[in-house]
Amino acid sequence: MKTKFDSTQWLLAALCLVWLLAVSESRADQKIEITKQDRCPVCGMFVYKYPKWVAQIYFNDGSAYFYDGAKDMFKHIFNTQQYTPGKTAEMMTEVWVTDYYEVELIDAKSAYYVIGSDVLGPMGHELLPFRDQAAAQEYGRP
Fold it and tell me: What is the pTM assigned to this prediction?
C-alpha cells in the first residue's frame, strides 16, 4: 500500500516531532494500566475497549490521561487547555503510544508515524505509530 503525504500532513508530522523532542521519558518498563472507567478526554470513548490503539500522557502533577488512538492524543497536546483546563503542554512529562505492528507501549517521542493511511481505528482514519523508521517505511511499501 502506498501512502501519499501532502504539505499539511508533513507540517503536522514536523510539529509532532518538534513537540515530542521536548518531552522526557522515564516509564519505559511500565505497562499501561487502564480501568473500565477511563475515558479519552478528547472524544469520551472508553479506552479499555481499544487496547491496540491506546496512548497516554502523564503530567507533572502525577495525573495520567488515556486515549483511544494517537490522533486524539495529539489533539489533546495541541489544545491542552480545552481538554484539561488548568494544564498546559509544558506540564506533560511523558507521552506513550502503542506500536502498530508490535502492539506494545512505546515512547511517543522516539516513535515514527504514518499519516494518511487507510487504516481505521476507533475514531476513523488513524495516525499509525511505529517503534522505528524501518517499520514505518515497511508499512508504506506495496
Answer: 0.77
